[in-house]
Design brief:
Largest sheet: 9 strands, mixed
CATH topology of one domain: Spore Coat Polysaccharide Biosynthesis Protein SpsA, Chain A
Radius of gyration: 29 Å
Structural class: alpha/beta
CATH class of one domain: Alpha Beta
Number of strands: 11
CATH architecture of one domain: Alpha-Beta Complex
CATH superfamily of one domain: Spore Coat Polysaccharide Biosynthesis Protein SpsA, Chain A
Length: about 450
């Protein structure tokens, strides 16, 4: 039976290491830990858990460090984990069968990155609600999944490459070896342990390493993609990031994710034609994600290409059928192509799906205004007031619509309600005074005409 070793590099990992090593008990027969300069109890814990511990110098190169650790492995297969990761219990049943698959040299493993913020993303992958299947992670509301080759044969030609974002996957592909997929997961807790300070420090360091990697491997499209992503995370250096994404696309036109991020930056800069072009290339390259379809639809909508926007939004809806935002955007696009009945129905449905989402209500208001339905727009604006915790601007907006339908008293009622809720709002006070004055003058003129 093939044997499996755990291979890992660590530094000051005492808080996590014991739980990590406990998760591979009964799975790995060998443990090799390479310490890069710990000042805590990391090495003592590793030795107590039965690991063979080596000390290695840190040289600003993750691949080099991992390869030094890997060189000490004697087993037939290696598993790579970091200290803030845990192997899923299901691996104990699955891995023995994987290690006997003679035609496969490595396995992609899904990594669940737990997060506190359900709106967070890794690259363009959104967080999803935590299903609670892994008990130690049930306190976290969401996670983001990605895949990496973490289980692989121990052979001289299989080793890590990349100063940062290192992987053995590239060597497996370069040498024509087959990669399979494991069903078991790795659970990553690093993102829920980060403070703002440690995150900023990590991003700055990864930016430094990313620039070194791109300089050392100028023809590596992946290196330029990774650098673009870390440039974005480091304070949103959009122009630097765009240059990296463009270079990645030049080197590998089939790298759809690079086209997506280039398109996203163009969109942020209101360059909608370039955004549309890049997003089409992303889709053509096989990066057929929800994010690509939604953003392409948004770019086309801004360009007033409403038929094309509708096509993209429909594609996005196929990829995420229960998304209220896409339902409402599709409704807007359908209305602008002439089908206002279907458009209004879709936006009403989106509001029913997410009644507390202000964007859904805003789209209904905007569409009624565009259709010239001032009375319906006013009703929609008041529905928003009733459905949400309104802000002063919500009352001002609702009040501004009713005079278009000659409903001055409704406008006064809205502002009076707003004044009661926000007595300190000078904007509401002025608007109420103006409405009252204008309404009084209008009524006087009408009365004069009747008297005449």
């Amino acid at each position: 039976m093939p044997k499996l070793a755990l291979s890992m590099i660590v530094k000051n990992a005492a808080a996590d290491l014991r739980d990590c090593l406990e998760s591979i008990r009964g799975v790995a027969e060998e443990i090799v830990v390479a310490d890069t300069g710990s000042h805590d109890e990391t090495m003592a814990i590793a030795k107590a858990e039965g690991a063979r511990v080596i000390s290695i110098p840190w040289e600003d190169d993750f691949a080099a460090a991992r390869n030094k650790c890997l060189a000490e492995v004697q087993a037939d297969w290696a598993l790579m984990l970091d200290a803030d990761e845990r192997l899923d219990p299901a691996a104990k049943e699955e891995f023995p069968a994987l290690l006997t698959q003679e035609r496969i040299s490595g396995f992609q493993v899904t990594i669940r990155n737990y997060v506190f913020d359900a709106s967070k993303k890794i690259w363009d992958r959104p967080a999803v609600a935590n299903d609670g299947s892994y008990a130690p992670a049930r306190e976290f509301p969401a996670y983001i999944e990605h895949e990496n080759v973490r289980l692989f044969r121990r052979e001289p030609k299989i080793y890590f490459t990349g100063r940062v974002h290192e992987s053995v996957g590239w060597r497996l592909r370069e040498t024509g070896r087959k990669i399979g997929a494991a069903a078991s997961r790795i659970h990553h807790f690093g993102m829920v342990r980060e403070t703002a300070e440690t995150k900023a420090s990590k991003l700055a360091y990864y930016r430094k390493l990313g620039r070194l990697k791109a300089a050392e491997e100028p023809q590596n499209a992946q290196a330029h993609l990774e650098l673009g992503l870390v440039e974005l995370e480091n304070g949103g250096a959009a122009l630097d990031a765009l240059g990296s994404f463009r270079r990645a696309c030049e080197l590998n036109p089939g790298l759809g994710v690079a086209w997506y991020f280039a398109g996203a930056i163009h969109f942020q800069r209101n360059d909608f034609p370039s955004a549309r072009s890049c997003l089409r290339r992303a889709e053509e390259a096989g990066h057929t994600t929800f994010a690509v379809a939604e953003l392409a639809g948004d770019a086309c909508y801004h360009l007033k290409y409403f038929e094309e926007a509708r096509t993209w939004y429909r594609r996005a809806q196929q990829r995420r059928p229960e998304d209220a935002a896409i339902e409402s955007k599709l409704g807007m696009a359908e209305a602008r192509t002439g089908d206002s009945t279907s458009g209004l129905r879709r936006i009403r449905h989106a509001i029913a799906m997410e009644p507390s989402n202000p964007q859904m209500h805003d789209r209904l208001i905007v569409l009624h205004v565009w259709l010239g339905n001032a009375r319906e727009a006013g009703k929609a604006a008041e529905e928003k007031l009733n459905a949400l915790d309104p802000k002063p601007e919500d009352f001002l907006r609702a009040a501004s619509i009713w005079p278009q339908a000659n409903e001055w008293e409704r406008a006064e009622q809205v502002l009076t309600r707003g004044r009661a809720m926000f007595p300190e709002s000078e904007a509401i006070r002025k608007a109420l005074h103006q409405i009252e004055t204008t309404h009084t003058r209008s009524k006087s003129r009408n009365d004069a005409r009747v008297g005449t």
